[in-house]
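If your schedule permits, I should be very grateful for your opinion on a structural question. I have a record of one protein: its chain in single-letter code and its fold written as discrete structure tokens. Would you kindly read the sequence against the tokens and tell me how you understand this chain to fold? Thank you for your consideration; the sequence and its tokens are set out here.


***
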Amino acid sequence: MFADWDDLLQKNYYDNTLEKWLLGAFILLSSMLLSLLCIWGLRLFNKVYAKKTDTVLDDYMVEKLTFPLATSVFWAGIYILFNYLVWSSAVYIIFSHFLAITFTLIVAWIAIRFLNALVEGYWLPKIEKEETAIDASLILVIERSFGIIVMFIAFIIGLKNAGYDVNTLLAGLGLGGFALAIAARTTIFNIFGGLTVFFTTPFKTGHRIIIDNFDGYVERIGLSTTRIRSFDDESVAFIPNHFFAEKKIINISQSDGFQRSFIFVFPIDTEIVKINKVKLTLLEIAKEHKQIVGTPRVMIDNFTDAGIQLLFLCMIHSKSAWWDIQHEIAIEILQKFREQDIRFTVRSTLKALPPPESERIPGMVYPEEVKKTKKSKDKDEE
């Protein structure tokens, strides 16, 4: 019985004995089990030890390196299996090339994940805490660009180690890259716009800006687009970066406040003493309000058909809710003016639309009917 079993184990199947195939299966299953144990052990370490430390760097290190290290353990088992068994020449060439390429990619993957953990666990918290001149989005873009470059170099090195002619491939990529650059010129313009934002720093992440009449907070500056959350309705817009090189940018966060104006129209025969009194009242309101910064200005702006146009300019603090502050200022102005019996008129730019014919009052003449009557009279005179 044992002799038959030994004979069975020594039988050749595809250039290897059954005993070798069974040991190869054991190596493969063991490598899979060890990679799973690696994941479990690192997660347990993160839960028991890393989470209890004051720094977050070790948390990010364990989180980012868990899967690359587990994959490298499984790759080591595949490598041992490959060298243990005997393969045909065709399979050997394919397998050896595959291992050469994947080895360099795994090493690059570990290096990139290590950099990710270093950036997210050390550099970004340091930048946010110390408020340095370096923007966090720039660090993230450099991190992603570094990852792409490292993976590309690792792939080329892997192909070279596998015996492929890398020079021919690079020459082909050069011609293909030139054609791609022509086809994707808009993307290239956006990338140059992103680089302009990073190096000239007209704004940073968290700043409130206005570009092309869009007002919002910058959430992330990417290499191609910038994500901005609207100040009014909190909707999110992705703006191509080439706009920042072409359009006017207003950075509200870098100023003390943003300007709001109030226009009052007084009758043309209003006394000068009363105009000066209105001016002093408005300046007093601006001085007492805590959310008004800078020097307010009150001046006669123009003389119109409606009367004397008085302009009141003030700067509302950039971090305040300007709509509430403007409402408070307007209410306070109304109260002060009513207390002092100051009356003014407002010119409206709204155009009143006539009601539908079913809702019109009989006998009332509406504007468009006056125009029609005037036109008919002009025709009759002609």
Remarks:
- Residues 89-130 form the longest helix (42 residues).
